[in-house]
Amino acid sequence: MLHYRNEVLAVMNQKGGVGKSTTAELFAEFMAVNLGKKVLLVDTDMQCNTSERYVEMTPVVDDPTNEAGFVPTLLPDFDPEVDTHIRPDSNIADIFDGLVCEPRETAFNPDNEDDPIPGIIDVMVGHPTKLEQVNGRYADNSVELVENIVNRLQEVLHDPQYGDFYDLIIIDTAPTRTPLFRAAMRAATHVVIPFEPEQKSLQGLLAMYGAVRNERSYRNGDRDVQLVGLVPNKVRSVVSSHREVLAYMYADPHHSGLMPPKGIVLPLTAEISARDFKKVKPDSLFKLPRSNKQRQKGEDMMIHIARKVFAGHALSPEIEAYAKNRGRK
Ligand SMILES: Nc1ncnc2c1ncn2[C@@H]1O[C@H](COP(=O)(O)OP(=O)(O)O)[C@@H](O)[C@H]1O
Ligand SMILES: [Mg+2]
């Protein structure tokens, strides 16, 4: 029997490039910068975009199998005498060997002298080649695969030690239906699906709903997985096909209940793509002035997600208070 103790939001879509990492990062930043919450970001994608954004990684020059081109740095205070359950390059792939993954500190914390924020973002970093190996370790549907990979992330992330410290755990996921995709689904209490409003994306969304339904039928009792909804991303309101696809989705019963309130989207905008460059200041959409239109749009979407994830939760009144007062500060 699996026990679900913590709030775990998985950002999922089988397609690459739709904004999974972006949505995971924006939501983490919104919660930490604007609401002062403690967030643990878990990077299970072998591309490790999220790890690279927040944590310094080490370039690799001599390993042709490592297409991402970097690996996690060594822990600065690693002591082999004491740290027997941790590897010096501690990363999320280690949990599948029965080891501990040490959350890494990022610049998003109250002790950052240059740019303190009220909350915290810590990251369990990925490892490009080791995560790849995890996916290929066992035969499809073998008992070992389910016990050692698919269920393992769930067991780790629902450890009370994380829930006691963090308000929320966010998993950035791999694009394909790999064992790691299944592990993220198993660990999740909530799932959010970013997508681009294009005709060819719609079939993939139906497949995602099917994956969530499958997971619900697997869980017995303790806690179901909630599909909190869709995040229309890279939306260009001047493009008629975008408007048409969104209108279709608001009318279609498969999608309509999962859509945010009309007008709430993440637009295709330089304020969001600028985040790809590490040196850009400010380093978060939510550190731009409150008057910035793109920040406001991003916030509208993040408030919507927060309301869904924390519906009926102790944090719900704080989210409502923020939503109510933000125009006046
Ligand atoms: N709303 C947006 N506006 C501009 N660029 C975006 C937006 N959303 C995502 N991007 C960019 O698109 C690329 C893919 O996004 P990403 O979040 O990495 O997708 P995924 O994780 O699903 O593969 C990244 O370079 C990202 O900066
Ligand atoms: Mg990604």
From TrEMBL:
InterPro entries recorded: AAA_dom, DNA_Partitioning_ATPase
Q: Which domain of life, per UniProt?
A: Bacteria
- Spell out the Pfam families in the cross-references: AAA_31
Q: Where is the AAA domain?
A: 7-214
Coiled-coil positions: none
- PANTHER family registered for this protein in UniProt: COBYRINIC ACID AC-DIAMIDE SYNTHASE, P-LOOP CONTAINING NUCLEOSIDE TRIPHOSPHATE HYDROLASE
This chain's protein is named: ParA family protein
